[in-house]
Write a structure and sequence with these properties.
Distance between the termini: 64 Å
Helix content: 40-55%
Length: about 300
């Protein structure tokens, strides 16, 4: 199947490679041409402008976006909307907020262009392991691009989730769950590390053990095993944790729907805390304890 791909970051580049290895024809574009030249060496057809990309695809065209969420996606959707024709298909595979999908789908629909939102999970391992795909939009359009999904995903690794926005909504919740799972592992190993037994424990070996029949086994533990194997106490890593937006959206959605999501919310706030050094809020707590109870304050 022919497909255009816009965005050759870590995910987009590996997705292009997997599709090429699966026998699909990929016309690739990236804002920085070096990435385009790189994927051409793997067998893709290179394009160095959107007009060139569109001209190299046969109708009905399928164009997959792997771009940072937000204004960048709007920019490319606007550009494509004036260049594509009726029955062409745009797929957004980035980590987009689901309400933006609804707005963009309507804009393209007015021109007769189809839109699918695809939540993509798999990270840098997707090239070899496959990508878990959660797709929203028109079911007939979904069916028409299924050959691409079959190649990208592992067996039983893709799903039609419903109307426009459903794919990214499911991916948003997926990432909220991911935040909470990661936080649980972090707290458990921090407790072990602080205990009298911690200095003698092989954390990489323990991660491996827990993936052998334990109820807490997971791919995250496999990755943690690998991280500990490289650095047993992660001494070369600073505990500074960014977030890419989906956790915030999940928490906001829980507020809007009056659904308690305490663990996911706390895991998000923990990431905020990780970025603070000697926070003002903690200074207030220390000062108050000293004022009402005479508790010791640690001076700088």
């Amino acid at each position: 199947m022919d497909m255009g791909l816009i965005g050759l970051g870590k995910m987009g580049m590996n997705m292009a490679k997997r599709l090429l290895r699966g026998g699909h024809s990929i016309v690739a574009y990236n804002r920085t041409p070096e990435k385009t030249r790189e994927i051409v060496k793997e067998g893709a057809i290179g394009s160095f402008s959107i007009d060139d990309l569109v001209s190299k695809l046969s109708p009905p065209r399928v164009i997959w976006l792997m771009l940072p969420a937000g204004d960048t996606v709007d920019e490319y959707v606007d550009t494509l909307s004036s260049r594509l024709a009726k029955t062409d298909i745009v797929i957004d595979g980035g980590n987009t907020f689901y309400k933006d999908d609804i707005r963009r789908a309507e804009k393209l629909r007015n021109r007769g262009i189809h839109f699918l939102d695809a939540g993509v999970s798999g990270g840098i391992w997707g090239l070899t392991e496959g990508y878990c795909l959660m797709v929203g939009g028109n079911s007939d359009v979904f069916n028409s691009v299924e050959p691409l999904l079959i190649t990208l995903a592992p067996p039983e690794g893709y799903m039609y989730c419903g109307q426009t926005g459903a794919g990214h909504y499911v991916k948003m919740v997926h990432n909220g769950i991911e935040y909470a799972m990661m936080q649980a592992y972090a707290e458990g190993f921090e407790l072990l590390n602080a205990s009298v037994y911690g200095k003698d424990l092989d954390f990489s070996g323990l991660s491996h053990l827990w993936n052998r029949g334990s109820v807490i086994r997971s791919w995250l533990l496999e990755l943690l095993e690998s991280a500990f194997a490289k650095d047993q106490r992660l001494s070369g890593i600073r505990g500074y944790v960014e977030d890419s937006g989906e956790g915030r959206w999940t928490v906001k959605e829980s507020v809007d729907l009056d659904v308690p999501a305490e663990v996911i919310t706390q895991s998000l706030f923990k990431r905020f805390r990780s970025r603070q050094e000697d926070s003002f809020g903690d200074k207030i707590l220390a000062a108050l304890r000293n004022e009402f109870g005479g508790h010791k304050v640690v001076k700088k």
